[in-house]
Amino acid sequence: IFAHPIRKYQTLLTQAKIFFAKEKETEYQPILIFVFLYALVGQILEFVAWVPSLGSLGSAAFFPTQSTLFTIILGIFGIFLSPVLTIIGIFILAGAIHLAILYYKKGAAYFQTWKVVAYAVLIPIIYNVFMTLLTTIVEAVNPWPEQSVYSQMPIFGSYYIVMAGVLLVIGIIALIHTL
């Protein structure tokens, strides 16, 4: 599992059928560690991509200095809390899905359901990092601060609508890819 983690993640993203045919883990621990580490790395990358947006035109009016510091502290706390909540959520979601599977296939192993859910949770990480980076770049060059996605009361102008549309398309692609 730790020999080539980047190649493993790349195979999961691009060739899921081959990935699941090759991955024959029988224990929770290696998968838990892999999921936890990738979720942690994803959160760190999102945080690094997000922090510059605090000084962009759109968010400068929204985030005063003390609030910015508090927001950064919450972001750092989220970096470590998110992977833990992800692991807990995987067990809950896999349990619910497994109950539905048991209705159709008696005696199915929970571990197989859990393994698929655990790896599926990792697919959107790359999209989340990309959307955060894109939002930061777009907000940095935003000529209309009142149309910022960070505004408390954004004005829904063409800039805001285009930005929201692009993020929606990327989100739909991530959802389809995960399914």
Can you tag this structure with a few keywords?
179 residues; mainly alpha; 8 helices; 0% strand; elongated
Quick gist of this model?
The protein is mostly helical.
Task: Describe the protein in words.
It is a single chain. With 179 residues, the protein is mainly alpha-helical. It contains 8 helices and no strands. It has helices spanning 5-14, 16-22, 28-50, 57-60, 65-104, 110-122, 124-140, 158-178. Helix 7 (124-140) runs antiparallel to helix 8 (158-178). The chain is elongated. It starts with a helix and ends with a helix.
Order of helices and strands: HHHHHHHH
Number of strands: 0
Q: What's the rounded overall pLDDT mean?
A: 79
Reported for the largest beta sheet, the result is: none
Q: Helix fraction?
A: over 70%
Uncertain segments are 56-63
Query: What structural class do you assign from the helix and strand content?
Result: mainly alpha
Shape annotation: elongated
Number of helices: 8
- The gyration radius over C-alpha positions equals 19 Å
Write the layout of secondary structure elements.
Layout: H1 5-14, H2 16-22, H3 28-50, H4 57-60, H5 65-104, H6 110-122, H7 124-140, H8 158-178
